[in-house]
Amino acid sequence: MSRAVTHLYQFGEFTVDGDQKVLLRNGTPRPLPPKIFDTLLILVENAGRLVGKDDLMNRLWPDTFVEETNLTFNIQQLRKSLGDDARQPRFIETVSRRGYRFIAPVDKLLSQNKITVAHAGNTSGNVDRREPVTAGGESALVAVHEKTLIAGARLRNILLLAAAVVVVFGAVGGWFIWSRSKRPQPSVNKLMLAVLPFQNLTGDPSQEYFSDGLTEEMITQLGNLDPQHLGVIARTSVMHYKNRQERLDQIGQELGVQYVLEGSVRRESDKVRITAQLIQIKDQTHLWSREYDRELSHLLLLQDEIAKEVADEIRPTLVDTQKRPDTVHQPSLSPSQYQAHDLYLKGEYFFNKRTGEGFEQAVEYFQQATAKDPTYARAYAGLADCYALMAGYSGQPQTEFMQKARAAALHALQIDESLPEAHTALALIVQNYDWDWQTSEKEFLRAIELNPNYATAHHWYAEHLTWLGRFDDALRESERARQLDPLSLIIAADNGAILYYSRQYDRAIAQFLVVREMDPNFPRAYMIDAAYEQKGRFADALPNLEKLQTFGDNPWTLAELSYYYSRSGQQTQAQHTLERLLKLDAITKSSPRRFS
After folding, report:
1. Residue 14 placed within a domain
2. What pLDDT is attached to residue 502?
3. Minimal CA–CA distance to 20: which of 6, 12, 524, 416?
4. Do 414 and 529 share a domain, yes or no?
């Protein structure tokens, strides 16, 4: 038969024939599963240009909802075939949260010349090149193409034998495709809204805590309006868009929301000017825009006022239009209460850094807030959160912090029993320190009852259910947390951990790969090594373990290394590493690590 050479590409030592669907390295075939080859072809055809994740998924799985983990898996396998490294890419560059770019120079052959190939029944693979190609560099590519065609004939039987493997691969991939959507999807009965980070227009970077605090306050206010019908994206996810210029339709798709609230803050002396506008994503209609000038002492009242107006705009489209919860208007703050609130915002700013140093600074500000206003329950809840998590981030024994955490949580509840943050903190404390599973579950459920939009409560409750072996319930709670906080690294990583503990190792690996695409150095994502080891994929686990060693000796790294060496049959190294671990443990007496 005759055909024109129209889809032949060469980069480095590789040649891609899009028509024969064959990849060669220095003339030697490297078979790829169909979807992975298609991924390569799309990237090569668009060499030098960014190919968005959604575009790739739409082209690879048209008219089908797929999870992003399928694409991540394809890229990982493709990099492995090309010998590429995600951290120092030679071929495929990851553009965080957007897509991929093929960065190597690509030579493309476009020719009208005909090449006649023996019929499929001719296993000799004879090739008759009828006309020479005279364009610069193309004759060499045609010669490579001839090898490709010959290799294609010789590979036929191999590919037939591999068909069973491809069928199994396709079945697994199909299960991924149909079992879950490509991102956590909003409930069909709930509208989703994101409060984008309010811009700090003061020109003073030291005031960032104030604009960030206002953003978080608005999230809290709106999340409490009608949680059965209106979901509000958590702070962790919306802060990804701080000082960035993503299009609103992209933000809407990434967060799974129908509306966004955006605005700015200008603070001068004892006055504040806030602008806010509500935008509908589907047509980017500005439903309303307002500007507010207020005394700082009336800040909470102003937040409440904006939240009520947003709700009034959205409410006609809610499922239950008859339900109209009354908004509780907060009184003006006294000077000491205002100062306490300002200190609380600073504490939240440092708490959300999720570092040992950040927790220490947050504790200082929360303590100052409680000194200014001893009745400020949220500041005590902030203290409880800090103390409950500090052991996991500092490596110090949890006994150093848990009594302080418990006292702060109980004091917050004594002041305000309806505070979901305090119930959540107490649930974590009695779970990790007392192992009181019944009280912990009761506190988690109370927090979720008080605020169904509180992502952290769903996240930590999912972990609680995991320890009890209730994996289906844990995954449901984890999905609720991901819907409310879709860009949270820790929530996404802990979703992978639940899959790992439930022995769904392939799904766990895929989920951890998604997290590492977002942040290759995120500590919790290194749990992917454990999943690799359970699958017997020791070569995949080793590079990550080697990188962990660069951070120095710590109990968790040494324990993981010892396990790896033992499972992979390297008993001498395992024994040596175990001895290092025991010596270190005698010095530090470390506690179990948490990254919640």
Report:
1. yes
2. 94
3. 6
4. no
